[in-house]
Amino acid sequence: MTNIYIFVKIIYIFKDLMDHSEIKILIVDDEVNSTILLKKVLEKKGFFPETENDSKTALGRIENEEFDIVISDLQMPDISGTELLRAKKPDTLFIMITGFGSIDSAVESMKLGAFDYIGKPFNLEEFILKFDKAVENINLYKKVENLRQQVDETSSFSSIIGKSRKMLNVFDLIKNVSRTDTNVLIEGQSGTGKELVARAIHHNSPRAEGPFIAINCSAIPDNLLESELFGHTKGAYTGAVDAQKGVFELAHGGTLLLDEIAEMPFALQSKLLRVIETWEIKPLGSDKVKKIDVRLLSATNRNITELISEKKFREDLFYRIATVTISLPPLDQRKDDIPLLADHFVKKISAKMNRQFILKGDAIEALTRHHWQGNVRELENVIERAMISGDSDILARHSFKFLAAGNDGNDELTMGGNLELKDLEKVHIRKVLEENGWNKLQAARILGIDRKTLYKKIKEYELE
């Protein structure tokens, strides 16, 4: 038993070393002793860093090789750490080493995209904390990249992104109903992607070559909705100067989505029911009946069962439109998908802006903890706002500080209420850290405590 235990232990140690070996690290400093010291520290942690004492050589390597982490001195002969920072690849995390009196330069390097900085002479405890945080970000980024590569499975669903169990169940339903002409009701809160699901059903159906028409029943005045649905003849009503086809006729041979169907006037629902039963329409002002061939999809963010009990929606119509019901989960119930969605939106908007943005791990953490009342649509808008309003191509936690206070899942961090003293301290420390871009040295000065005390508080309150 002892030999087996030792063998298993060796396997886990070897696996850990293999994982660490996948993280490529470069240490740059013109002082040989500094590079030797940091290299030994990281080797004890199971990493295999490379070192350079010549800044010119380091520049060439940073430009031509792929490094996950670069740790560089700020002040060096020939080429400065700032120049190396400007040359790094977008995915590389850069930790700047600064001497006393170089705080302004360190802050400037953070603005240019450095992940963090460490003072010289080294506080090894502080260095290890910051290095571990960089490794954590890299591992999270690589996890997101791996997940993104798996998204190919969802590409047939019109760019619907998701790997959570609830979304996989939705995909299975889409596959099943797409093969048929069954009427489908798609339920979900605003912003969950109901129209995307409708388009996915259409594009995966035998009707994919036919038209896809969508109409929002709540966006059209009641007195015009019947004409929009079924069409009208010239002179059918005041203002009808020309004949017009309705969406049912326009969707002939394809798919029609009636979005927000629960907002349809009660009187018009009986006419819709008749059309679904016969697949015939009669335009306003006409005596002629037209046969139509349409796949009907409906969508709503309302509880139709409640509307039926309130006599605001016809029960017989409900059973006609909801042969199969697909319920979309709100984003707060599929938070495992947020890293995938965020990565997708960053790449999509980057292409639109002709820039290359990088989403850091702490930003993904903040987005995951936020309460998304507007669901996926709100997430996309928030990411686009951060990309437009920021002055850096690096999206970090502070890039999203405009999110509503107290609405990021951290209710205990909201000021007010009967909070205990330790809770108020936690709130205040987080507020100072966020206002200073998580610059711990600056935050410690403002808080009037030393750096070690601040690190203890961060660990105690689990602020990172």
Tally of DSSP β-strands: 14
Major sheet: arrangement of strands: 2-1-3-4-5
State the helical fraction.
40-55%
- The rounded distance between the terminal residues' Cα atoms is 40 Å
Low-pLDDT stretches are: 1-18, 152-156, 405-419
CATH class designation of the largest domain: Alpha Beta
Query: What overall geometry do the principal axes of the alpha carbons give?
Result: elongated
CATH fold naming of the largest domain: Rossmann fold
Question: What's the overall average pLDDT, rounded?
Answer: 83
Could you describe the largest sheet, including whether it forms a barrel? 5 strands, parallel
CATH architecture descriptor text of the largest domain:
3-Layer(aba) Sandwich
Share of residues in strands: 5-15%
The CATH fourth-level homologous superfamily of the largest domain: P-loop containing nucleotide triphosphate hydrolases
Identify the notable features of this structure and list them briefly.
Helicase, Ruva Protein, domain 3, 48% helix, Rossmann fold, single chain, 464 residues, disordered N terminus, 14 strands, 5-stranded parallel beta sheet, 3 domains, alpha/beta
Descriptive notes:
- This protein is of the alpha/beta class and 464 residues long.
- Residues 1-18, 152-156 and 405-419 have low confidence and may be disordered.
- The protein has a five-stranded parallel beta sheet with strand order 2-1-3-4-5, sandwiched between helices.
- It has helices at residues 2-21, 32-44, 55-64, 81-87, 103-111, 124-149, 165-178, 194-203, 222-230, 247-250, 266-278, 304-309, 315-321, 338-353, 361-369, 375-389, 421-435, 440-447, 451-461, and strands spanning 25-28, 50-52, 69-73, 93-98, 116-119, 184-187, 212-216, 255-259, 280-281, 290-291, 295-300, 324-327, 358-359, 394-395.
- A hairpin with an 8-residue loop joins strand 9 (280-281) and strand 10 (290-291).
- It is built from 19 helices and 14 strands.
- It folds into three domains: 2-149, Rossmann fold; 165-328, P-loop containing nucleotide triphosphate hydrolases (Rossmann fold), CATH 3.40.50.300; 333-461, Helicase, Ruva Protein, domain 3 (Orthogonal Bundle).
